[in-house]
Amino acid sequence: xxxxxxxxxxxxxxxxxxxxxxxxxxxxxxxxxxxxxxxxxxxxxxxxxxxxxxxxxxxxxxxxxxxxx
Length: 69
Ligand SMILES: [Zn+2]
Known about the structure:
Layout: E1 7-8, E2 15-16, H1 19-28, E3 32-39, E4 53-58, E5 63-67
The site of zinc ion (ZN) has 7 residues, from helix 1.
């Protein structure tokens, strides 16, 4: 019987045999830093009140628009 050692990315949870792969995975993730803009709909179209889209500034300065599914 062998003990199997694995490394897990703290961001996405993927497991790797190689520590280097897990480190590359963790370092490759870009995280949301702040919400720049929120796009809302009128209450008669969206009773939930949650925004339809949000524009987010990422940790590397890139700005991306995300839409609710
Ligand atoms: Zn990852």
